[in-house]
Structures are given as structure tokens and as C-alpha cells.
UniProtKB/TrEMBL annotation:
<dbReference type="Pfam" id="PF00551">
    <property type="entry name" value="Formyl_trans_N"/>
</dbReference>
<keyword id="KW-0808">Transferase</keyword>
<feature type="domain" description="Formyl transferase N-terminal">
    <location>
        <begin position="3"/>
        <end position="198"/>
    </location>
</feature>
<dbReference type="InterPro" id="IPR004607">
    <property type="entry name" value="GART"/>
</dbReference>
<keyword id="KW-0658">Purine biosynthesis</keyword>
<dbReference type="GO" id="GO:0005737">
    <property type="term" value="C:cytoplasm"/>
</dbReference>
<comment type="pathway">
    <text>Purine metabolism; IMP biosynthesis via de novo pathway; N(2)-formyl-N(1)-(5-phospho-D-ribosyl)glycinamide from N(1)-(5-phospho-D-ribosyl)glycinamide (10-formyl THF route): step 1/1.</text>
</comment>
<dbReference type="InterPro" id="IPR002376">
    <property type="entry name" value="Formyl_transf_N"/>
</dbReference>
<dbReference type="InterPro" id="IPR001555">
    <property type="entry name" value="GART_AS"/>
</dbReference>
<protein>
    <recommendedName>
        <fullName>Phosphoribosylglycinamide formyltransferase</fullName>
        <ecNumber>2.1.2.2</ecNumber>
    </recommendedName>
</protein>
<comment type="similarity">
    <text>Belongs to the GART family.</text>
</comment>
<dbReference type="GO" id="GO:0006189">
    <property type="term" value="P:'de novo' IMP biosynthetic process"/>
</dbReference>
<dbReference type="GO" id="GO:0004644">
    <property type="term" value="F:phosphoribosylglycinamide formyltransferase activity"/>
</dbReference>
<dbReference type="InterPro" id="IPR036477">
    <property type="entry name" value="Formyl_transf_N_sf"/>
</dbReference>
Length: 205
């Protein structure tokens, strides 16, 4: 079985797309061994619980507040240890809103087996790295700088949204679009592309 751990911070609609793909056999041989959130109120946790998937909350703010000697690198190491408890072959960032410290990635690079970490970013390679990518693409379209946007699933490295690209998808922007229209269109494409990326990686093992 190709076990994955999914990291979320909010609603979990991409998580739901993965769950649905597993249940309808689009993702054969794939299972979610845990869903981890940095926020206890994240609705994605309820989605996971509804499908009897193990959940964990590991808050960066609480972790740092509980012990003033701790830092973000300590958090990254501890998060990596928690994830390893679930024996994943892949870690999927699906709306995880914390930049992972280098210490997190090092934990998976130096320990065997090496586990890939992938992220879904709502922009094409080399465009709109970091936060608010959809809004920035929308503004760029309004200025006539681009005629479409897109998204990518990529491997996570220390540099933000700059790791090896696994899959991309173009997303149209229409003249009459509001930002909400574009966000809705982006999310529908995200769900399919993320599932396809997991399928690709799971079948390469």
C-alpha cells in the first residue's frame, strides 16, 4: 500500500478530492495514514474523521509559546518525527500554510527511506511564488501582462515554490471574471491535478 500523510491548514477541499479518488478507485493502492493540521479548527480535520482517517494537530504557535527556547527549526524536526510515525511514502501539502523550515526537509533527506514532499501551488512554474498567487495572477491579467494562469504540483525544497515540477495545468482567465470566479475555476483544476500527481508518483514506486 502506498501510504501518504496529508498536511492541511484549512477547509481541506483538496484533501476531500484525494479521499474521493481513493474511495472511487481512481487512486488504487493509495491510502491516507494521517491528516495533520497546524490549526485545531481546520475543517479538513472533520473531513478526515468522517472517513476514519487518523488526525493530529501540531500548532507552530503553541509549540513556540509552550517553551521559549524552541524555534521554527525545532518545530520542523518535531513535525518530521510525528509524520514518520505513520510510515508514509509521500507527504502531500494540500493547503498547508506554514513555510516548512529547512530542518524539516533535512530530516527526510538524511534518514532512510527518503520520503518525497510535494506541494500544490496555484501558479505556473516561475510565476507568483509564495502567498496570494491567484490574486496576483488576476491583477496581472487585468494589467494585460498575462492571458492565462495555472497551477503546479512540485517537490518541496527550501526555496519557496521552486522544486522539481511533477505536473502543471493551465487555467483560463476570462475578461468577465471576478476574483471569486477565478478562484473557483482554479480549485476545480487543483483537485484533478493533485490527484493525478499522486497517482503518477504512486505508480512509479
Amino acid at each position: 500500500m502506498f501510504n501518504i500523510v496529508v498536511l492541511i491548514s484549512g477547509n481541506g477541499s483538496n484533501l476531500q478530492a484525494i479521499i474521493d479518488a481513493i474511495e472511487n478507485k481512481t487512486l488504487e493502492g493509495v491510502s491516507i495514514s494521517a491528516v495533520i493540521s497546524n490549526k485545531s479548527e481546520a475543517f479538513g480535520l472533520k473531513r478526515a474523521e468522517k472517513h476514519n482517517i487518523a488526525t493530529r494537530v501540531f500548532s507552530l504557535q503553541k509549540y513556540l509559546k509552550d517553551d521559549a527556547s524552541r524555534n521554527r527549526n525545532d518545530y520542523g524536526i518535531e513535525l518530521a518525527k510525528i509524520i514518520r510515525e505513520y510510515n508514509p511514502k509521500l507527504i502531500v501539502l494540500a493547503g498547508w500554510m506554514i513555510i516548512l523550515p529547512a530542518s524539516f526537509l533535512v530530516e527526510f533527506e538524511k534518514n532512510q527511506p527518503i520520503i518525497d514532499v510535494i506541494n500544490l501551488h496555484p501558479a505556473l512554474p516561475g510565476q507568483f511564488a509564495g502567498a496570494h498567487a491567484i490574486e496576483r495572477a488576476y491583477e496581472s491579467f487585468q494589467k494585460g501582462e498575462i492571458d492565462h494562469t495555472g497551477l503546479m504540483v512540485h517537490k518541496v525544497i527550501e526555496e519557496i515554490d521552486a522544486g522539481q515540477v511533477i505536473l502543471t495545468a493551465n487555467v483560463d482567465i476570462k475578461k468577465e471574471d471576478t476574483l471569486s470566479d477565478l478562484e473557483e475555476r482554479m480549485h476545480s483544476v487543483e483537485h484533478t491535478t493533485l490527484v493525478n500527481a499522486i497517482k503518477l508518483l504512486s505508480t512509479q514506486q
